[in-house]
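Troubleshooting: if your tokenizer reports a length mismatch, compare your output against this known-good record of 164 residues.
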Amino acid sequence: MKRFALLCLILCAVNCTVAVAGNRTFSGFFDGTEPTLVSGPGTCADDGSQMLPYLNGGTFQVDADGEYVVLDAGNIGFTGLGRIADAAILIYEESFDPANPDANLRAAVDFVFNEVEGEDFVFLDAGTDYILVIQRWCEGVTGPGAWGALIEGPGSFSGAGFPT
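Known-good structure output:
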């Protein structure tokens, strides 16, 4: 049995390719002094009927076109740990204008997708500036709270955030 396992390992090593992927973690803290923004597409009030606090998480780029996974820490089981803010992750392409939050919106992540809450897939283009905006969800814990987002995919990242 050990020889069979060793043979399988050798065959896999010879015939398998290793996928190179990068990731970027963004995090911060809502302290209650943030400006507000109308609730956007993919959030709890799609009609823009609520003004919700938001933070600009910074600008980032990827060096490879492809599908990237976006995870919201507030939706993947961490909210029970205390003051973790449930938030929507908004990704803007090239620019973000709070006066016109629908302009340049590439993705809004905060819903159940493939039965994994708070996860979505977003196609990003190499060399494009993306702005990450975090907006509080309209229900649940309010006031001060930490937020976190992870984006991972086929390319390397530069700009805002930090690798994990």
